[in-house]
Amino acid sequence: MGLLDSLLNWLRSLFFKQEMELSLVGLQNAGKTSLVNSIATGGYSEDMIPTVGFNMRKVTKGNVTIKLWDLGGQRRYVVDAADRDSVTISRSELHDLLTKPSLSGIPLLILGNKIDKSEAFSKQALVDQLGLESITDREVCCYMISCKDSINIDIVIDWLIKHSKTATATATPTATATTT
Ligand SMILES: Nc1nc2c(ncn2[C@@H]2O[C@H](COP(=O)(O)OP(=O)(O)OP(=O)(O)O)[C@@H](O)[C@H]2O)c(=O)[nH]1
Ligand SMILES: [Mg+2]
User: Where is Mg(2+) annotated to bind (predicted)?
Assistant: First the structure.
């Protein structure tokens, strides 16, 4: 890349910074904190401590700054795609969340984590089990991922970048991702 290109890119980044806030929800043990680590550093650990309350982490990808709210799932949310019993709870928690007026119209990214495990649901089974086809009032996207083997983390990051808004926008840019 020429010097002029670099200079133009730098100038662009000053004026077109984008930012977004993302809430990660899901039942306990789904892999939300693992996903944050995977997006931020590409690292993975088997030894995770359950999140009590929440963590906030800012991650910058190119021009986009993503504020990730990692909400502890204990007695609240999250399911992993390999945990077949908890998908019913996940479904009802998800649909309950979608009735909240403050989240109306917010794009939804559903992530089926732990596809490295043999018992993980297929994408179609997860879509069916969570009743995703009945959600018609917003954009819904579903990816199957593995934080452990870094599968599809890149397309998650692409989705996040695509759904960020310019920092000058008046509405608070917020996206909700549900790890299932
Ligand atoms: N096999 C496999 N295990 C994973 C994967 N992602 C996370 N885990 C494991 O799942 C367990 C829970 O991961 P966490 O990231 O702590 O889950 P969490 O959703 O943040 O849990 P809470 O904070 O309690 O809500 C840990 O032992 C992780 O190592 C994955 O892609 N594959
Ligand atoms: Mg956690």
Answer: 33, 51
